[in-house]
Amino acid sequence: MAFGIYVHIPYCLQHCVYCDFSTTEINSTLSRKFPPNEYVTALKTEIASKGSQIGPRQVDSIYFGGGTPSLLKPRQLHEILQCLTENGFPIKNEGEITLEINPDTLTMAEIKDLRNMGFNRYSVGAQTFNDRLLKVANRKHSTQDTIDTLSLLADFKVNYSMDILFGLPTQTLEDLAEDLEITRKFNPPHVSPYCLTVPQSNPLSQNRPTDDVQVEMFALIEKNLIQIGLNRYEISNFSKPDFESRHNLIYWNDQEYWGIGVSSHSYLHIGPWGTRFWNSQNLADWFGQISLLNNERWQVPTVNSQSSEVLTMNQALTDFFHTSLRKKRGLSKSEFMGKFKRTPEEIAKRQLDKLNAKGLLAKSSDYYFLTAQGVLLSNQVFEELTFLTKEISEIILN
User: Fold this and answer.
1) Which of 72, 99, 146, 299 would be 103's cystine partner, CB 3.0–4.6 Å?
2) Integer Cα distance of 325 and 332 in angstroms
3) What is the pTM for the complete model shown?
4) Predicted confidence (pLDDT) per residue in 145-161, tens digit
């Protein structure tokens, strides 16, 4: 079984209007009250206190997300990795250590230092190569900043992924085609294209491409990425062979992970169907929670609370269907049987047949998987495969 660790770094150059993660601008009043050096110290306290109850374990993936983790100094990132190792969480020899970076936040010297520390994968928030659209999205970096950063990573021949955002206000198919032309020139090993998703109240909800144009945009992205050898292995992720994100595969393959830092989430195979627990989304509250760890023994939650959830069978089924079907290969019937001791058809024959008849789901001897139309309408699939306690009780009783 694989095991991953997620470390959340909340500091950002700016707060993007489409972002709903727990972040704070690096020069804000809140960041001055809780500066990065104190945040790193608190992370080390959390690791030392909670690690004794979660580990020791060898780690397949460590992912530094945010926020913009590359705003921390390399020595601070090294302190966190070292603390994990000292508390029983060494990275495996073939393990993956990922750092999310914004364009123009790393120098050549810093990349050399990070490589020596074990960082072997970078996730670049490119979003778009159109300066006008970058301003629309309230991004501070420029197209040239992104090109310089990607060139630097290419020179070091390191593994990296880049994010592409589509469906932005006033963005056209021609704009996207230009983004993809530049992407093709860099020939990255991994690309994550995301359709902008914001509530109606958000300023970015106005003047967006129509739903039909967004479908065309995704088709254009897939066509271009396939032409440079990147194949879709998950709804929003394309990679060359053997360059899939190991960390995200832990989430999609029902493996265990531990989240460290403000707003981070964890999932362990504790209880009959697993347990989820999470940290406060409020930076000040998180610091308060960490200060208490110095005075009391932390234990993995075993009951429901404001910050934990012991999963029921219907919740575990919903999660398993949703995460498995995100992958191109789909849901393995044998793996489903291994966990639930029933076939998918015994649990959800009506729903599966309905989705199959609609052309949203297909099946092979051991897999159910989304069709091309199912990928575009995946929300409909996931809604159909969301289970209520009453539904599951009736299935088991019958």
Assistant:
1) 146
2) 9
3) 0.94
4) 999 999 999 998 999 99
